[in-house]
Amino acid sequence: MPDDQPVLEVRGVTKRFPGVVANDRVDLDVRRGEVHALLGENGAGKTTLMNIVYGLYHADEGEILRDGKPVSFSSARDAIRSGIGMVHQHFMLIPVMTVTENIVLAAEPTRAGVLLDSETAAARVRELSDQFGLAVDPRARVQDITVGQQQRVEILKALYRGAEILILDEPTSVLTPQEASELFEILESLQAQGKAIVFISHKLKEVLEIADLITVLRRGKKVDTIARAGATEAGLARMMVGREVLLRVEKKPAEPGAPILEAEDVHVIDDRGLEVVRGVTFDVRAGEIVGIAGVDGNGQTELIDAVAGLRHPSAGRIVVDGRELTGASAREHLDEGLGHIPEDRHRRGLVLEFSLAENLALHDYDKKPFSRLGWLHPGRLVQWARRLLQEFDVRGGGPQTRASALSGGNQQKVVIAREVTRDPRVLIAAQPTRGLDVGAIEFVHRRLVEQRDSGKAVLLVSLELDEIVSLSDRILVIYEGQIVGEFAPDVSEEELGIAMTGGSREAAA
Amino acid sequence: MTDEIVEPAAGDDVETPPPAEPGGYAPSVAQRLAFYQRAGGIITPILTTVFAFFMGGIVVAATGHNPFKTYWAIFKGTGLNWFFHVGNHHIDIPFTNVHVWFPWNTAADIASSGYSVPANSLAQTLLYSTTLILTGLSVAFAFRCGLFNIGGQGQYIAGAITGVYIGTRFVGMPGPLHIVLAIVLAALAGAFWGAIAGFLKATVGAHEVITTIMLNWIVIWVGQYLFGIGGPLQNHIDKTNPKSDSIATNAHLSVWWGNPFLQGLHIGFFIAIGALIVFYLVLNRTTLGYEIRAVGFNPDAARYGGISVARNYITAMAIAGVFAGLAGVIDVLGYAFRLDVLDIQVSNVGFIGIAVALLGRNKTLGVFLGALLFGALINGTSTRNPGLAHVFDPRFAGNFSTMIQALVLLFIGADVLIIYVWQLRRKVGLDRRAESETAEGAA
Q1: Which residue in chain B is spatially nearest to A366 when comparing CA positions?
Q2: Which end of chain B offers a freer environment for a tag, N or C, measured as fewer CB atoms within 10 Å?
Q3: Which residues in B lie closer than 8 A to residue A219 (C-beta atoms)?
Q4: Do B12 and A398 touch (CB under 8 A)?
């Protein structure tokens, strides 16, 4: 359905930030009724480019054409006025206000010039949501609705202001797989009604699923624009990263030994006082990777916390290498040879304000050679860090650089370097590749398999089915706090999907 | 990550502007501000202070006085002009008869020959600063563990009361021993008072701001009772005054600059300097400091790292209490020599410590400079500053000092705003330049 005249043209846009060229003479055409994916690694300049289009940044060079006419936006307000809407990764909604209030904010229909005409506003919102299949309750407060629904509110907000071009920045990063597929249906309906959509992503699968055209950016430069037809994951990955990327993990068959990590009828209560892990029993043997698959929020986080000693189980036993650690402190778990790549590297894995050297010693700062009798040896921390940063190919800083200055992938490498070099007997990897791009994912996967091959017991928890299937030697499915099935890695994703939603519970029992 | 990819090189020791995501994403506004806040280390507190003085000047002008003359008089009252009076002088090496040439006149003792007014004023400023260094460290140390210690005042009084108690008892004790005993017990009293708040935070999660304020009031009322009429520590001879006995003379801290009988600068100043060094070493060179900083930055990550967050809350508050308790005992052994009910009611050095710590960004050098600034300000705006009386109503002078403190606090809270305005100003300047260039090009 796309017609020929592009509604949005980007011509030779260059944007420099101190020390980096974020966009280097980038061209882009977007047409009506087209979903145009902007694909690239973290830091490839995708968001910067769209922020320029949306009037948040000024391009240093180049121009932007709207319906063939050059435009210059000095703020997002200008962009909105010319029919461009953008949904950011972090929503800009006011939690205590209703859906309708949020949508009409700053463009409220009024009565007598000053009074909010809430009936007209609600009617207009309902009309829009019917038209594009965006089901949300206009009277609900934003704080009470799910993230997926909040995203729809953001989309409605843009449509309400007359967006003809809709920019979505990594829209699926906050969604569950179910919500993501609902989003795609919405996008198709928008597309059918002639809207142009720019879809920013670093995930190959979803881009191939939804986009008509795919523009790949690498290091701020446009690599190429290709049609979906004929594009492959491997081809796109090569364009993104600039070299061949192994999307499949290469590994030998596992040679499992004796059980190292044993959990027996573990029950865990979460912060709200609810029992979210309800009697989980499993073991992980030396030299194997056991994957725990499940939809987010089925007790994985709390189970991991219990195994790592960060949360006391309310019942059950946790044994590491024959030694009971139930109820022991995090420190005792660490000393017993437990390594833990936490699911949130910002909240837990790193002290972002600390230097990399300090972060790399987070578990062992109080041991030789880093300290003696309570005195720290900063020089030895730095020395150690220099070695690890080189060994694990961490880029973007030295031992004294603050962890916050690194990119997500390099931060994760720091966490992995720390956990792996402690030579743990058990390694817990919770969502180890969340938010990473293909190159970094490959690195993390290779390291995990290396750990397995050196005889470690690896427990992998991930929301990405791909990751679970390609890395695990055995797969456990968790549903509502219970293990509902065990599968071999050659299981189909459909079968896993059914188990993850509670389908095969009877069959497994 | 390929070989051809060149990461923006970040040196080992320099803090480069946040490369954010290497090679790409523009750093967010918050990221950039956080960076400037760090990088601008010394710039922001200076800007903050300048803004505060500027606003103070407007107030002075509004009252019909000349702000420049007022500030000049205050400056002279602080004794900081001492450094400008370079001449041919000498100092005596202690315990010898040797004199050494020295560019400044150190005769701060009004009874000595060649007495220098600025030297005396400077000694007074440093006397105030001594206390403020310690109360500032108290607040700063707790801050580094992520705790807001409003209780410096209570810990200070706890230390002062303990100091008075020990100093007025054990009269026959040898001086140095007596002093050490008083200081150690007072520091422990401060530590105990601070640790209560840490303990409540660690065990039941009671917020330290609330508990430290409550603890302040408890210790103030305890002091009122102890030194009030008929109280157990009230003066034994003068039963009509709500004050303590006087500290035994050999428990006085010796004065090394100025007149010992007119509030000279005592050796407590060196204790404060020592405390600064201890503060730095503990935080940066010990595993305890590592834990405290980790908890302060990110308690979740600290716990994950195997650090006991609860224990560090208690320890940090106890150490904060040690600093404030030291301030209390040094004041009573150094120049106050007694405590009365009014002292306890009006004292606010613990609260000024908050301003000192905030202005000093909880860093060692920052606390020192902040304490110096506030010490100078208190001394310079004191009603005892004769120069100020000529240009500014002395009755308002004390309020003026409080006002500047309040303005500094206000602007510290708004430092991000100040940086933002600063950046904006520069950006606007650049835009204007760019515009004029294009205009020239067109012409």
Answers
A1: B287
A2: C
A3: 5, 23-24
A4: yes
Structural domains in chain B (count):
1
Shortest distance, CA A327 to any CA of chain B (angstroms): 14
Domains delineated in chain A: 8-241 (3.40.50.300), 257-337+425-509 (3.40.50.300), 351-423 (no CATH)
Indicate whether B440 belongs to any domain.
no
Name every chain A residue with its beta carbon within 8 A of the beta carbon of B26. 15, 17, 22, 47-48, 51, 57
Compute the nearest-CA separation of A458 from chain B (Å): 18
Domain-located, residue B23? no
Pick from B19, B293, B297: CB nearest A396: B19
Closest partner residue to B26 (CB to CB) among A17, A358, A396 is A17
Among candidates A47, A48, A365 on the partner chain, residue whose Cβ is nearest the Cβ of B287: A365
Nearest to B286 among A362, A375, A439 (CB): A375
Residue B410 counted as domain residue: no
> Is A345 an 8 Å CB contact of chain B?
no
Do the chains contact at A330 and B303, CB–CB below 8 Å?
yes
- Cα gap B370→B40, rounded to integer Å: 16
- Pick among A21, A347, A395 to test the B interface (most B CBs inside 10 A): A395
pLDDT tens digits, chain B, 443 residues: what are they? 333 333 333 333 333 334 333 333 344 444 555 555 555 566 777 877 888 888 888 888 887 888 888 888 888 888 888 888 877 777 777 667 778 888 777 777 777 777 888 888 899 999 999 999 999 999 999 999 999 999 999 999 999 999 999 999 988 889 899 999 999 999 999 999 999 999 999 999 999 999 999 999 999 999 999 999 888 988 888 888 899 989 998 899 988 888 777 788 999 999 999 999 999 999 999 999 999 999 999 999 999 999 999 999 999 999 999 999 999 999 999 999 999 999 898 898 999 999 899 888 889 999 999 999 999 988 888 777 777 777 766 666 667 777 777 776 777 666 656 666 665 655 555 555 545 544 444 43
- CATH number of the domain within which B99 lies: 1.10.3470
Domain interval for residue B273: 66-391
Angle between helix B152-168 and B309-331 (nearest 10) = 50
Residue B427 lies in a domain: no
* CB atoms B1 and A19 under 8 Å: no
Query: Contacts of residue A331 in chain B, CB cutoff 8 Å?
Result: 306-308
Predicted confidence (pLDDT) at residue A295 exceeds the cutoff of 90: no
> Is residue A151 within 8 angstroms of chain B, CB to CB?
no
